[in-house]
Amino acid sequence: MGRWVGPIYSEADFEKVRVLDEQVAELHPDLKAIYDDNVNAEEGYGLVYIAMSEYTFWATAHADSHFPVVQRMFQMLESAYRTGEEIIEECISVMFLENLIGEPQMIALLPPSLRRQMGRILGETR
C-alpha cells in the first residue's frame, strides 16, 4: 500500500500557520472560538490546518450577516498568500480555497491572487 509523500514541514513552518490562524481569529469572536477549539484540542500543531477549513465554513455561512468581517478575512488571507511561504500557500489552498468549491458567490468575492489560485484548483486555463 502506497503512502502520501509530501513536503516535510518543521515546527517553525507550522508556527507560521498558527500565527495566521490567530490573526484571522481576532476578526470575530466566533472565529476566536474556532481557533481556541482547534489549537487547544491537542498539543502541537496538528490542528492548525483544521481551523483554516472551519474559517471557510464560517465565512460561507456568515457572508451576508458579517460581510465586512468576511471581506477582511479574505484580504488577510490574500496578503498572507502573497508572501510566497510554501506552507501558508498550501494551507490556504488546501484548507480554505478547496472548501469553497461549489460556492460561486464566495469565489466571486476572492481577491486576485486567491481567485487565480482557485482557478488553478478548478482546472481553469487562462
Amino-to-carboxy terminus distance: 37 Å
Oligomer designation: single chain
Integer-rounded radius of gyration = 14 Å
Helix tally equals: 7
- pLDDT < 50 runs, ≥5 residues: 1-5
Quick check: average pLDDT? 87
Strand content: under 5%
Pfam families: DUF7674 (PF24722)
Protein name: DUF7674 domain-containing protein
Give structural notes.
The chain has 126 residues and is mainly alpha-helical. It has one domain (11-121). 64% of the residues lie in helices and 0% in strands. It is built from seven helices and no strands. The protein has helices at 11-25, 29-39, 48-62, 67-81, 86-96, 104-107, 112-121. Helix 1 (11-25) runs antiparallel to helix 2 (29-39), helix 2 (29-39) runs antiparallel to helix 3 and helix 3 crosses helix 5. The longest helix is centred in the N-terminal third of the chain and has 15 residues, at 11-25. The chain is globular. Residues 1-5 have low confidence and may be disordered.
Relevant terms:
64% helix, 126 residues, single chain, DUF7674 domain-containing protein, 0% strand, 7 helices, disordered N terminus, DUF7674, mainly alpha
Question: Would you summarize the structure shown here?
Answer:
The chain has 126 residues and is an all-alpha fold.
